[in-house]
């Protein structure tokens, strides 16, 4: 059973109506947006909660188990800078949501109610609704490692150790034309091995779609320009002239790790692991010496 702070419990038992709900949303890139149902801004839990009378929360559904609970939070797109473009570009996907009970007469009396992560976002006209899972999805993740010949690290993460900010690992480009929601014709501003871009990441750095990231499925040179096929469609189309950054890809092989990135010491796979054929191979009829096959 949760224990209330004594001062807050006293007001609760007295039936004093000085309590308001507040919600703090934290994106994966660190941007924070906070709102309260109260009619004025409140500073609590180290965050300024903006007044948002149109914000509403559905009842939280939870069970006495490790199964995820669910909640919904709805409001207008003007809430604390939450824009339709941001939602379309996926910037609020998997954002952390924290709900609080705040005493608006004494905002330092602040009680955390629940927390969760945005699982889906529904937009209708100028309104949005966040569908929230109230148990961290990481609790359902698989722990441990697989024994495979290929690397199981993510290019550029702590286990990989490759510094993708190095000039030799990325290139600047601009959009010449937009062929479809998955195909772009680009002009590179510097020399880079085209074949090494497959499996890399395209990041839009200017224009309406700035911040958009998509994996590069296929890259080839056509008519003196670079034709890039994206792994997923773009919800907002970039425009000709928009600037991009292209980073190299990695096929998780030991040879690529050594030759392309010079990172063989950090390779997180087992390149000499025997294959399935080793289990069914018998002794050789010729040149068999001792335990050799």
Structure, explained:
- With 293 residues, the chain is mainly beta.
- The chain has 2 domains: 8-139, Roll (Pnp Oxidase, Chain A); 167-247, Thrombin, subunit H (Beta Barrel).
- It has 3 helices and 15 strands.
- The chain has helices at residues 6-14, 84-88, 254-261, and strands spanning 19-26, 32-36, 42-44, 47-51, 56-57, 70-76, 96-103, 110-124, 127-133, 170-178, 183-188, 201-204, 213-222, 225-230, 243-247.
- The strands form 2 sheets. A 9-stranded mixed beta sheet has the order 3-4-2-1-7-8-9-6-5, with no helix packed on it.
- It is extended.
- It starts with 5 loop residues before the first helix and ends in a 32-residue tail after the last helix.
- Residues 62-68 have low confidence and may be disordered.
Task: Name a few traits of the molecule.
Pnp Oxidase, Chain A, mainly beta, 293 residues, 6-stranded antiparallel beta barrel
């Amino acid at each position: 059973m949760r224990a209330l702070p004594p001062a807050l419990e006293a007001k609760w038992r007295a039936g004093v109506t000085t309590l308001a709900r507040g919600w703090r949303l934290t994106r994966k890139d660190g941007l924070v947006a906070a709102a309260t149902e109260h009619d004025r801004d409140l500073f609590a839990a180290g965050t300024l909660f903006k007044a948002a009378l149109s914000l509403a929360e559905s009842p939280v559904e939870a069970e006495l188990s490790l199964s995820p609970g669910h909640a919904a939070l709805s409001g207008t797109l003007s809430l604390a800078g939450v824009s339709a473009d941001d939602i379309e570009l996926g910037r609020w996907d998997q954002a952390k949501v924290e709900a609080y009970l705040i005493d608006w007469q004494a905002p330092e009396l602040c009680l955390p109610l629940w927390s969760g992560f945005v699982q889906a976002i529904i937009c209708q006209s100028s309104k949005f609704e966040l569908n929230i899972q109230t148990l961290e999805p990481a609790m359902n993740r698989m722990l441990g490692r697989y024994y495979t010949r290929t690397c199981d690290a993510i290019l550029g993460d702590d286990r990989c150790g490759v510094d993708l900010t190095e000039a030799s690992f990325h290139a600047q480009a601009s959009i010449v034309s937009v062929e479809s929601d998955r195909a772009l014709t680009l002009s590179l501003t510097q020399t880079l091995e085209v074949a090494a871009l497959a499996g890399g990441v395209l990041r839009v750095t200017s224009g309406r779609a700035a911040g958009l990231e998509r994996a590069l499925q296929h890259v080839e040179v056509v008519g003196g320009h670079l034709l890039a096929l994206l792994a997923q469609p773009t919800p907002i189309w970039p425009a000709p002239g928009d600037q991009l950054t292209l980073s190299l890809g990695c096929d998780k092989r030991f040879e690529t790790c050594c030759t392309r990135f010079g990172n063989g010491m950090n390779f997180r796979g087992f390149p000499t692991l025997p294959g399935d054929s080793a289990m069914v191979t018998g002794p050789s009829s010729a040149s068999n010496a001792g335990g050799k096959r």
